[in-house]
Amino acid sequence: MRVNGNSCRTIWPDSGDRGLVHIIDQRQLPHAFVVEGLRCVADFAGAIRDMHVRGAGLIGATAGFGMHMAAHTAPEDNFDRHLRKSADLLLATRPTARNLAWAVERQLAAMAAVESVTEKRDQAFRTACAIADEDAEFCRRIGEHGRPLLDAISRTKHGEPVNVLTHCNAGWLAFVDYGSATAPIYAAHSAGVPVHVWVDETRPWNQGAKLTAWELGQESVPHTLIADNTGGHLMQHGRVDLVIVGTDRTTRTGDVANKIGTYLKALAARDCGVPFYVALPASTFDWSMRDGVREIPIEERSGDELKYISGRAAGDRDVRVLISAPETPAANYAFDVTPARLITGLITERGVVKPEENAITALYPEHRTRPS
Ligand code: MRU
Question: Does ligand 1 come within 6 angstroms of the Cβ of 180?
Fold first, then answer.
């Protein structure tokens, strides 16, 4: 997607140096666009854990390049041990997004398929690039499959914009390009369909206010930032035509873990008869799980993310201020699970599907059998 009119991805290998991968440091957005270089596995693990990069697809792509860097820097006489240690370091960074383990497992399998260390290094680099390219392509296709949903609503609105509500950031910043929830929006917008997006601010990290609003602005998509608790009111008054959100892990039965607060939006949407869609590439499915509420691990982050808020003050100064009393105990659950029964459909790179095991595995027949 575009930044100041120039095409950009969220992660890319250096064109001349295999030991260097570039990311956008998302902690600085929207006030500064800062590109950061990652050179060792610890850099990759830190970037994921401390949210320089975030969002399911981008966490997966970063882990893919992290494993490439593990292979690139591993000593020949201790190659396999170094790889395993690096994989464990990356896997321990964030627990909820399925894409992280998916990318690490894909890299380990790709390297196991060839013999020499030189071949393994080449294979790891190719696989990291393939994971990133596939992520971008799958999101593009999510846009193609999701766009007709907006087209159909638009036809009933006689030129009035289609109002989409989204939560958190499942935009291109959460992937390599296009985004999942935003892909149908971008596709409709570029086809001339009038669209307007209600952007939940998404406390406590404010991915909506900091990232989604910024990236929609860069693409000139009309949007309005709202406080997290506003969606229900807007839905009651007919001001939301559909909800589209992303997901960090989706069970084979269609239960969906997404940023904390998503479940409450789904409840409000059901009460108001507003369609509620979830967009995802295949890498986000956890084919081993059936019961999202019981099985999906939910990340708990520092309570300080709730108690402090950061932003930009006059004079371009970055400031972090304490909101609560310093001694207030705080619990910061990063995700919640929306059960399949509240979801209208899943928008995937293969098409739109009902959130039901039979329908999902008919679309992905290679996953008909549940892994143990
Ligand atoms: O904590 P984050 O920012 O990594 O959370 C990820 C998200 O932005 C959301 O949960 C998103 O809606 C799904 S990720 C494609």
Answer: yes
- Give the rounded distance of the alpha carbon of 238 from its chain centre: 28
C-alpha 173 – ligand 1 centre gap (Å): 10
Low-confidence ranges of the chain (pLDDT < 50): none
Pick the CATH number of 144-367 from 3.40.50.10470, 3.40.50.720, 3.40.50.980, 3.40.50.300: 3.40.50.10470
Q: Say how far apart CA 62 and CA 175 lie, in whole Å.
A: 10
Atom of ligand 1 nearest to the CA of 258: 10
Instruction: Spell out the residues 6+ positions from residue 159 whose beta carbon is closer than 8 angstroms to its own.
Output: 194
Domain boundaries, the chain: 2-134, 144-367
What pLDDT shows up at residue 1? 84
pLDDT computed for residue 161 by the predictor? 98
Closest of 220, 147, 154, 141 to residue 184, by C-alpha? 147
Residue 67 confidence (pLDDT):
98
pLDDT for res 48: 98
Tokens of 142: 């999510």
Rounded CA-CA distance 223/349 in Å is: 25
- Catalytic (active-site) positions: 248
> Is the separation of the CB atoms in 152 and 45 below 8 Å?
no
Which pLDDT score is estimated for 2? 86
pLDDT of amino acid 94: 96
- Written as six digits, the tokens of 84 are 């395993």
Q: How far is the CA of 193 from the centre of ligand 1 (A)?
A: 26
Query: Does the domain made of 2-134 have the CATH classification 1.20.120.420?
Result: yes
Contact between residue 303 and residue 331 where contact means Cβ atoms under 8 Å apart: yes
In sign, the C-alpha dihedral spanning 89, 49, 280, 190 is negative
Q: Is the distance from the beta carbon of residue 107 to the nearest atom of ligand 1 less than 6 Å?
A: no
